[in-house]
Amino acid sequence: MAPRVIEQRGLWYEEFEPGVIYRHRPGRTVTEADNVLFTTLTMNTQGLHLDAAYSAGEPFGQRLVNSMFTLATMVGQSVGQLTQGTLVAQLGLGEISFPQPLFHGDTLYTETEVVDKRPSGSRPGQGIVTLAHTGRNQHGNVVARCTRTALMWMESARDEG
What we know:
The protein has helices spanning 32-41, 47-50, 52-56, 67-82, 155-160, and strands spanning 21-29, 87-97, 107-119, 126-136, 142-153. By secondary structure, it is an alpha+beta fold. The chain has one domain (13-30, 66-160): Thiol Ester Dehydrase, Chain A (Roll), CATH 3.10.129. The chain has a 5-stranded antiparallel sheet with strand order 1-3-4-5-2. Strand 3 (107-119) and strand 4 form a beta hairpin. It starts with 20 loop residues before the first strand and ends with a helix. Pfam families: MaoC_dehydratas.
């Protein structure tokens, strides 16, 4: 008898339910190295991310984690639970905001609400899902929000293909 094999995957289009909230764990504690590496890799020369002496004299009194790192990590935290292996393509991001900064040593926790879904009008066997990601620090303060539109496989179409 062959062993039962379970492969980690995200959700098929049919499994998404508007109004459901997914909490993605574990959180991600952001280090100084993360921030400096991401900032320099993306050629962002903003002193608020790289220059500790300069940042000490600014309103937050310390360096800020690059908001694009926060956004990318927030979306990335959802992949294993929602879109791993079931995503056709990311269609877009919208309504992005950063209400409070994230600092070195903070831990980012993300949750995702399924906002809407509809079958694709032009791509049989696929559907469009709208997700709202919210990132919070270890104190529960909202540090980032965004909506994300994803093109997802329908399970029946994926099995046929």
